[in-house]
Every structure is written in structure tokens, then in C-alpha cells.
From TrEMBL:
Main location, first listed in the record: membrane
Protein name, UniProt field: Phospholipid-transporting ATPase
Originating organism: Rosa chinensis
Lineage: Eukaryota, Viridiplantae, Streptophyta, Embryophyta, Tracheophyta
Annotated region (Disordered), positions in chain: 1-82
GO biological process, one term: phospholipid translocation
Bias kind Low complexity: ranges: 47-62
Pfam families: Cation_ATPase, PhoLip_ATPase_C, PhoLip_ATPase_N
Amino acid sequence: MTSNRPLLIPSPRTPSTHDLPTLPVFPDSAKPSSAMDSENPQPTLNSSSSRRSISSVQSKPSMRYGSRGADSEGAASQKEMNDEDVRIIHINDLAHTNERFEFSGNSIRTTKYSVITFLPRNLFEQFHRVAYLYFLVIAVLNQLPQLAVFGRGVSILPLAFVLLVTAVKDAYEDYRRHRSDRIENNRLASVFVNNQFQLKKWKDVQVGEIIKIEANEGIPCDMVLLSTSDPTGVAYVQTINLDGESNLKTRYAKQETLSKLPEKDRITGMIKCEKPNRNIYGFQAFMEIDGKRLSLGPSNIVLRGCELKNTHWALGVAVYAGRETKVMLNSSGAPSKRSRLETRMNHEIIMLSLFLVVLCSVVSLCAAVWLRRENDNLDDILFYRKKDYSEGEVKDYKYYGWALEIVFTFLMSIIVFQIMIPISLYISMELVRVGQAYFMIRDSQMYDEASNARFQCRALNINEDLGQIKYVFSDKTGTLTENKMEFQCASIWGVDYNGGRGSLEKDQLVHNVQIDGIVLRPKMNVKADPDLLRLLRSEKDTNEGKHVHEFFLALAACNTIVPLVTDSSDPNVRLIDYQGESPDEQALVYAAAAYGFMLIERTSGHITIDIQGERQRFSVLGLHEFDSDRKRMSVILGCPDKTVKVFVKGADTTMFSVTDRRLNLNIIRATEAHIHAYSSLGLRTLVVGMRELTASEFEQWHSSFEAASTALIGRAALLRKVAGNIENNLIILGASGIEDKLQLGVPEAIDSLRTAGVQVWVLTGDKQETAISIGYSSKLLTRRMTQILINSSSKESCRRNLEDAILMSKKLTTVSGNEHSTRGSSGDGITSLALIIDGTSLVYILDSELEEKLFELANRCSVVLCCRVAPLQKAGIVALVKKRTADMTLAIGDGANDVSMIQMADVGVGISGQEGRQAVMASDFAMGQFRFLVPLLLVHGHWNYQRMGYMILYNFYRNAVFVLILFWYVLFTCFTLTTAITEWSSMLYSIIYTALPTIVVGVLDKDLSRMTLLSYPQLYGAGHRQECYNTKLFWVTMVDTLWQSVAVFFIPLLAYWGSTIDTSSIGDLWTLSVVILVNIHLAMDIIRWSWITHAAIWGSIIATWICVIVIDAIPSLVGYWAIFDVMKTGPFWLCLLAIIIAALTPRFCVKFLCQYYSPSDVQIAREAEKFGNLRVSSPVQIEMNPIMELPRR
């Protein structure tokens, strides 16, 4: 079938145009709805070549709760649009358009640097790290002749190496951006120039020009549509590059410009629009053309970054270009987050800095005393010597006096001891995080086959935070559930039709329509209720049958679904795929089709529905989109019988408030009871109502709507008011129940997280009953829990409820504690509390003094469930916890309404599900299923935290032991900062000698296996208790470092005391011994060995030997041939062995005693894993430490 639109045979029951009510069509009102009962899910539409539109639709982008639509538009429209606040564009008149000031060109630039600015700007950004400034100061000091301890070039080497590596990485990334910009700017567009369309580079397009876009082409700039190939002015665009959503959006041209083609008619006019802004879902403007003033909204503009789909061509006029387009204004990424471990590390770095100052102060004070005491002997004294005998004539070295010499000694000490602050640690941490991310991405247990989505690591700087999460804030729809809606049951006119639930596959109904010999069939089948089917087929004319007819007509018509045709295996059968931005709407339209109300065509002015085999055409006279204030949508239809009806669907909380309760009160009460029953089963509910409009009511609505649509101030608020006036005195037709099934493995995942000591809070926009039902099915709630419900309508009521709940929780805690003490450790007497609170109550609690009471109450509860919450309330709840505790928070969601929550939490996780990719794009990590959170936290989080904590402490130890050796040597050389270790070895120590092993261990080492960590979630408590990195461990490490430095320095000193060995030789001995020592120290702590680990550790020791030999083999360097001389002596090899034994024996003994008499959970599990064979079917019983709460901030 080559046609994009199949021919529809006119039905004998379909009225002609003159048979329909003579009522105007208002395309401005056609906007899609969103989910009424919850968080407005978004399906993903993958267009293919086999798909072709059988309809056209005129609609605006759907209202996303809290992020787009009326709210944002209303905020933008509160200002008067005058010449100072707006930009004026003269269509196809560039000279006049740029008369006052020249608008931005269409060239874009996403690069950070240019050839000229790269060096200064990159260095400026890198020196934001204070440690880099420290090493820069050290390098500068070493350039001064009075302070030159090392060679001037050598002193700059470490900092230069780190800066160079980072600069090369930044330059490469920026080159890729530059190359992408060049490709983008040189793309070609068809622009109307000199009375014909000519190809023009995108970068040369200007504001005011008319541009023609062909099918599947990208949009070069933000442009207002003038006309399209569709006779109704509709254009389909894909916004995946803009907001990540792959489903098609509909945009349309104004009726007054549809027939204007620039090749035939000269198009002149003026557009007044708001100044460039970031709101991709809002646009406020009007167009003056042919003496008419036309209002323009978000559905009249197509944005740069979109692609034209299912439309042959579209014409538009450029209004924003280049850096002023909305996509470029939104090009900034999510706020950067910093690892909690790295933040804590700064405290230890400050401690090390103070320790460095103490060392330098000791050296300078001792030097001061020594200079005073030896003042008369300074001319020829060893290590100092003021006289220069290098030439025939004896000269004096420059002596600056006692005071300045002390100052210079202090500064020289800082230079010599500079590696006390490990500059290599920063690069090591970055490399380790990259390696950890690689293995997380490659983890097959976090690969989602259904969506073909691998785990994504979008933020490399917070990997270790995954091992310390205490609070998980989760969305429900699409995160805990699949967000694939299935129609299950309906309450129609007070009767519960629930027979379809639980029916077998044979009860599924397939409704067919024949057009031109081609059978059209819905792509999805729906389980049907037999009583409802019988009623529709045999009792049409009864009162009950008429209400059922109106109910399913509302489901088929009150939406913005676009029917698309796809091919099937049978060439005579085509499948209708109902595409829309809300899975709820899709489920309802599929249900209507299953019961014989099949939507087969939609245009901007009418819809065609096949009703029980008879095709009927309805004029779409108006449509009010869903918004977060009204929580409902409505459509006004001109029916074949020339009546005008308004159909409304929405959340029960708002629908029952606009019904005429004087009529059919029993029906309303029955419907409310059925809704409560559906919610208790975990179903999502929508209420459907309608009423017939009189001619006067319609005319009044028409005039009000027209005035509101063209208003320049407060347009959104006026449209809401018009909708509210027409959506009243409704007759309730019934309600629908839609099931959103739990994702696979969600109950087990929540149970594992709670066992691990992680508190799971669920924040949802669903009804309380629905959320509670999902809570039970997901094992978040249990029957033994005591539920605390807070549903308040005033601040005082909230205060009283919170105070009462806190008092009750204290009593229950006391009682359960007493029972627990009498029953022992069985835990039978412990009473768990569950707090369930709604969004209305949170309005009065958040940002008030009641926050403290809410946190106190929530802290006493095992489960917190927040219902009917808005997106900003989700972020507010996360902020409430972050402000009052030092514990780590994680937020996980799948929709745009979860973005604020994800960005507020310490760690944000996006689910790549049915609602687009906004959550993924704003997240730090992304995955396909909620259950993957368990291996992410309990396995990779635990590993990453353990590795990074150990690596930081090891780097502190590795550098401090080297500095202390230099310090001990200074004490024996008259405090003159003479060094026995060569300057090259000092510089290479942190770069080559010892850097690689710690990186390899940080990436590959595993203290426990995956199976053990998953089998015993309590092991995750090690991160909560900060077992791998804390102040106590830091000081214990420093004490161990002090002892090891004593062993390394004094054993060779005593062995060669009184000998004629030179300083370079003993310096080489110290260098080799300290490198061997720190590597064996690391080897003692490795749990999982691999060939890579062996190669890194023993290879580093071999590399050190080679480097020392090469350095000492160069005649121009100090210490020529020293290593060869010292290796000939017997004490050399004995010293190496004695140093290793003496330095590591205390550490070995302390580790043995601690693990034997006071083992941690991890050590117990490791021993059981090694000797108890945890992989057998009957698991070894391991008694874990209780998960203790850390003190609150």
C-alpha cells in the first residue's frame, strides 16, 4: 500500500457536511490530554516504514504535571506583550526584521574552548581544585634559588603531568564537539530567496526567512508553521533530540495561512513573540496577516532538534535562530554532584596539611636552635658549610641571616615534604571510577532484554555513594509498575461490570472493520465482560443500553489518540496502532474498540468512529486539555443527530465536584463505591461524565473560548475558566478500572532493600487506595504493620494529626520494646509503623515548622507512602530528609515529573520506560527495571565503596610513609633539608613506582562474591556504618604509617652506621625498600587475586628496580653507579628482608586479633564463604550485626 492515508468508504450512516450542525471548528483548542489519575505517563513510539497514518490530528503538547502546559504558559503570559518585551519579525522581510537590532545568526557553538582560549580557560578550570593550587605554589617556590631543593624542571613534572593528562582529555572532548558543530552548521535547508526556494547552509539561515522542510528532515531553527502538505495543516514531529521522547507530536499551521504558498502568493505579515527563553513547552505570540490578528501557541511552533515525520513537507518562518533557539538555551546539563566520600576526604587532607605544617615547623625550629648553637662553626660544618671550596679561590655562599634562614628552611621543608598531599590520588580516583563504570555497564544482570537497555553510568564521580544509600525515594507508575495499562473493568450507570477480570484468553474480543477489502483490527486485544457484550448487542434501545453507548463513545472520543496502521503477516489484514502520549488513553481506546466503538480516523475538525459496524462522523467543536488544576479533559462533539454534547473524563476528586448531585444520587454513590473497590485492588481509576449543550450554552462557550484564545494576558488562566464553565452539571456515566502491573521482581527487590537497612519511600500521584494496594502487592506494606493515615485539609489539622501520630508511635515503640525484651531476640514483639500521607497535607507541612514533626514521625516508621503528590512536592520531601540527616538519599523515577526529585537526591536513577527519557537525561545512573537497583546497590555499590575507601586510605599511607622517611633523614643532617633519595625517584614515586597497583585493586578487588552480597543484604550495612572509611581508620593508618617509616629508615641506618656508604647508596636502599613495602602492604589486603593484579604489584616492584638502575647509570645525575655499589654489600639484602618483616608484623598481628576477637559482618561472611561453602543449597547461618542508626545531624 503506497498511500499514506487509506481511502475510507463513506458509510451510509455518516452524514454529509451539510447534515452536521453548522458550528465552527476551533483548531486552537485541540490539545492532547494526559493521565488523569496519576503521573501522566508517556509511551514510546517507534515509527517504521511499515506505518502509515490513516488520520490527521490537530493537537498541542500534553500537560505534564508540574512541568509544562497551562501553568508554564500562564506564567509567561502574565506580562503585557509590548514592543520592549517582544521581538518583532516581519515575514520574508529581512531588512525590516533587523532594522532596530540584528538578531542572532543560526550558527551554533557547543564547544567550550577556541584555539586562543583553550590554554588559559582550561588551566583556570583545573585550578578550581585547591590541591592543584598547592602544588603550583610548591613548584613556584622551588624555582627560587634560595629554596631550590629539587631541579627546577623535575619539581614541575608531577603537576605538569596531571594537568597535561586532563588537558588532553578536555581537548579531545572539545574537538569532538567542534566537529559535531561543523557538521550541524553545514547542513542544508531549503530557504525562500529571490522568489524561489534555494539550498542554504543552516548557519546562514536568518530570522524572518521562510523555510521548507521535507519529510524526515531536521528543523534548522525554531519556526512558526505557515502551511503543511496535510490539508488540515497538521505536521507530525519527533522530539527525541529535544526531550528524549520518541513518540510523535502534532503541530499545526493556522487556517488563515494554509493556502498561502510563497511561490504563488507574496506572504507578508508580522509576528510578535516573546523573547527567547528555555521553556520548550510554552510559546506566546500572535501573527498579523491580511489584516487579521491570530494567536499563536506551543502547538504552532516547531523547534530546532525535531524531525518532520509522516508529513511530506511543511513551511515555516524562522523566529529564533542559533544560540537563541530553545534547544540551545536548554543545552546545560544536570547539576553536578560530588561524592560524599570525596567530601569527607577533604577533612583528612586538611589534617594531613596541618600535620605537614607541624613537620615543617619542627624542622625549622630545630634548625633555628642548631644555627644558634653552631653559629661559630658554620663555615666548614658538614651538610651546611658557608664556604665554597669548589674553585681555587675560597668564596662565601650567600647567607641571609638567622631569621631568613629559618623562614627559608620552613619553605624548603614544604617543598621536600610536598607529596604528603597526594596529587596522584585525584587522577587515580578518576581512573578507578571509569573502570568501575565499565564493569557496571557490562553487568549482564542489569541488562533489560525487553527494552534492549543496558545500564548507563552518566555521572562518574559518585560511584562510591551507591554503597552508602540509606533512603530510597521511588515513583510508582512506570518505576514499580510496568506503565503498560490494561483495561480491566468498568462501572457504568451504577453497575459493576467486572466479569472480564481473570477471564481466559478465549474471552478476549477482537472487533474488525472492513475498508476497501482490507480488514482493520486493533493491535491489542482486551478481555471482555460477557454481560456488557450482551447488553451492547441485544439491549441497545434500553435506558441502560443507552448509557453504556454513551460511556464507550466517551472513551473513544474524549482523547487525542492518533490511529496509525501497521502491516501484519496477513496481507489482507492491517492492524490499527493507537498512538498517544498517555498509556491510560491508549488502554481506554483499545477497550472501546474491543466493545465495538473503534476509532478509525481523526482530523483537526472531525473524528470517525465505527460503532457496532456503522461508521459515524462527529465534528470536533472544541477540546480542553488536561491540566494539573482541573485534573480532567473535555471534548465538545457535534453528533450525527445534530446535538452538541460535552464529554469529560478525569480524576474522581475533581469529577464528582462538577456533577449535578441532585440527579441520580444513587448512581453517584454506587460509582464511588466501585471506584473505592477498584482502587483497593490496585487499579487506576477515571470517571466519565457528559451533558448535552443547548444552542445558547454552546454560543456562550464559543465566544468565551475565542476571547480567551486570543488574549495576550493570562491566556492559560482564561482558558481554564472557560473549561470550568462548560464542565459542570455533568451526568456521571461511570468509571473505568485500569491495571498497571508490577514489574518483575519488585516485591523481592523491596524486601532485599529493607533487609539491607534501606528505607524505601514511595511518592506517587495515585489515589490513596491504589497506592496502598500496590504497597501490599510489592511487600512494601505488610498486614502486621500499624498504618498511620494523615489526610488533612488545614494546617492546624495537620499539626494535631502529626502530634497525635508521634505520641502514638512512641507508645507503640515502648510497648513493642518491652515485649521484645521479654521475648528475647525473636523479634515477634516488634511493631512496624507505616506512614501514609496525601499531597494536600504536604501542602501545609512542607516549607513550614511542621516539617520537623513530619520527619520525626517518618523516622519512627518503617515505611512512608505519599499519595497525590505533585512533582515539586516530591523534591520537597527529598530535601526535607537531606536537611535533617547526614544519610545518603537516592531517588528513582521514569517520567518528567520525577526530574526535580532525581536532581534533588544525592544519587538520581532514571528508569528508561514508557514515559520518554527526561528522567534518564537528568539522572546520574539509568537502567531498565526497578529490580536492578538491588545488584546496583548491594553488589556494585558495596564493592565501589569498599574499594574507594581503601584506596584513599592507602594513598594517604603510601605518601605519608615516604615523607616521614625524608623527615627522619632531615633530623640527622643538621635540619638542612638534604635528601638521600634522588629527586627523580621522589617525583616518580607517586607516578610510576606505586600508582598502578592501587588503581588495579580499586577496579578489580572484591571483598565478597556477588552471591554472598545478594544472599545476605545485611552486609550492605557496612556502608551505613562507614566501616571502610572513617576518622578512626585514618588515624590508625597514620599510626601504622609512623611505625613503618621508622622501620624503613632506622634499620638501614643502624646496619650501615659507622660504614663509609654514601648518601646516594643508602637513598637507593630506602627507595627500593619503601616501594617493596607499600606493595606488599597492598598485597596483604587483596581478597581476589587475578593475573592483572599480580602483574600490577610485582611489575611495579620490577619497574622500580629498573628505574633506579637506569637513573644511577646516567653519569650526569647525582648518585652515579650508587645502586651497583650498595647491592654488592651483604647488609643490603638483609635490610630489605628485615624491613618487610619488622614493618608489617605489627599490622599482621593487629589484623589477626581484630578479625579473630571482633570481626565485622564482612569478615564473617568472607570466612564463611571461604570455608563454609555458601553456594550449597542449605545456606550457612551467619549472625549479622544489628543495623544501627547513626546519630542524626
